Amino acid sequence: MAKILAIDDDPRILKLIKNSLEKDNHLVTTMDSALDIDFNQLKEYDLILLDIMMPNIDGFTFCKKIRDLVDCPIIFLTAKNMESDIIYGLGIGGDDYITKPFGIGELRARVGAHLRREKREKRNMIYISGLRFDLAGKEVLVGDKKIPFTKSEYEICEFLMKNRGQVFSRDQIYEKVYGYDGSSDSSTISEHIKNIRSKLKEFKKEPIETVWGIGYKWIKDREL
Question: What's the confidence (pLDDT) of residue 123?
Answer without folding.
Answer: 62
